[in-house]
Amino acid sequence: MKELKVSTDTSLFEVPAVLDAGGKLTGVCARQALAVMKSNGFVILTNLLSNEEADVGLELIRRTIEDPDRARCSFASETDNRYVRRDFCSLPSTRVVVSFAAMLCQRLEGIISAYCERSHPLLEITTLTSYLGSSHQYIHRDPAGVISLFAAVTDVSERQGGTVFIPGTHFDGTADRERGDKSRELMELFRVKTNFHIFCYNLAKLWRLLSQRKALLAPGEFRDRVLSRKWDEHQPNLMRFILGKNSQFSRRNLGPRTLWKLYRHRKVIRNLFHLVQTAPRKGTVILYQSDLLHAGPDNRSPHPRRLFSMSIARNSAEYKFWQAGYSPHPTLTAHPISFGDILDLPQARLPRVSSRQMIT
Ligand SMILES: [Fe+2]
User: Fold this and answer.
1) What ranges do the domains of the chain cover?
2) What dotted CATH number matches 6-177+277-358?
3) pTM for this model (two decimals)
4) Gene3D superfamilies given for it (predicted)?
């Protein structure tokens, strides 16, 4: 986005993964990554997966996406999902999927165990695919009390929509430590300011797509994304903006008091917060605290962006909370898996994936 300053320099947040003989991050590497995560809310572990391991993850994603009966996720943008701008779905708890998830958790145990106890549940295993024409999500926090990870199973470029983070905006992060009680209000002001830009950016992009000669939008898509009354928190929907029915961004966020505060604190906000866009290479894994401000940008390339994702609760999550904020596959709901269960799985070489293995 031209109007917003977005840094693509992620070097401060990267830690090269170093594994010990047991296949886990070495103590030094885990401590270094944990320090980055604690102060910034996220950490980028480069080369955690080999090319072959990432290929297994990619195949799991492909097989899931090809399944017409796949379990679609309820978060992100429902309208993008409907028009196949995104395809977010949960993965079944098959042997291969759970083995892949276990490999990631076991390697990252030194970091995740600082937040999650063995009894805490695995909330979901999902795949996040976005296509050309998807919307830029509003800056948001995921439901609190969760550690999530994204594994890049192919290279993800900035144009494909590598996740944007606002470092230090997690609760008890650097913003809280530097600004104390005032920090939450400043963070919210920055979020409103950024979401205003995202709203204009998404709207302008849809208008451009509509006015281009090629039929880049499906019949009814412009209406559903801009003028619909249907619930969706990540579209530039004018109707819901005016009615104040979008909890991420609506006219309710632009009252006179907020506008005055945005003006009054403009320098502090500008100095305190900045957007960083990731572009993870194949085999990179990003871990983040769910209460960190972040967004999934639009995919501006003809190549799908594919990520493997999973989330683990930082507390003994109640079933109601689990279902409300995350999208467990029915097989995971039927047979819950804890962080301890996944750590105890024997470390095995990942098999090549066939379509038959996905359903066994
Ligand atoms: Fe999110």
Assistant:
1) 6-177+277-358, 181-271
2) 2.60.120.620
3) 0.91
4) q2cbj1_9rhob like domain
